[in-house]
Predict the structure of AMOP domain-containing protein.
Amino acid sequence: MQMLHLLLLTIAVACLNANAVPEDAARAQAIARNTAACEKWYKAEPHPLPFLEQTRNCPCRISTSFPKEFSDGGAVWKTDAGCGASSQPNTCNYHKGAWGCYRHAYKSKGPGAQCCYDRSGNWMSDPHAGAGTLDRERAPDNILNLIQWNAHNKHDVIPWDNCCKDPSMPRDVCQWYYDRRPPGSCTNYNL
């Protein structure tokens, strides 16, 4: 029932006192559609703890030179192609506010960690401010790995698109995504 109220509130806010022109009505419909898709995904998605337990904690701090890859003493972290510091300011569309992100996964499929950092090399923990998030299905190292790319898109990218991509989406709806794809935590490794 609470979800229905949130959906109706979203539509009402988007229409602004029912004075919506056709473009505004279409936008309200898109928000309602995305809210419904996000809610359906959220309810079907398992708790993230079993996936977090299969990922490595992010380094709490990295070099401000933002190397292409680095070792934390036990694992190699690679630059996230979607948010590389060397491509600033034309990068980080999925993590607005981050300066650079890195990825690590123990296996070629399954969960992976994505860690994002501010310009000073500090790990970011607030996903609404650009923090990295848990990947239920890691992003593949090679874009030609279409099976893994499809799994990552299905479990991680498309849900984010539905829940958070549109800046008009209510923060509470976007939070459903981050409840299932949290940023994890960080460890002070000796880098």
In short: Helices lie at 2-15, 22-44, 49-52, 146-165, 171-180.
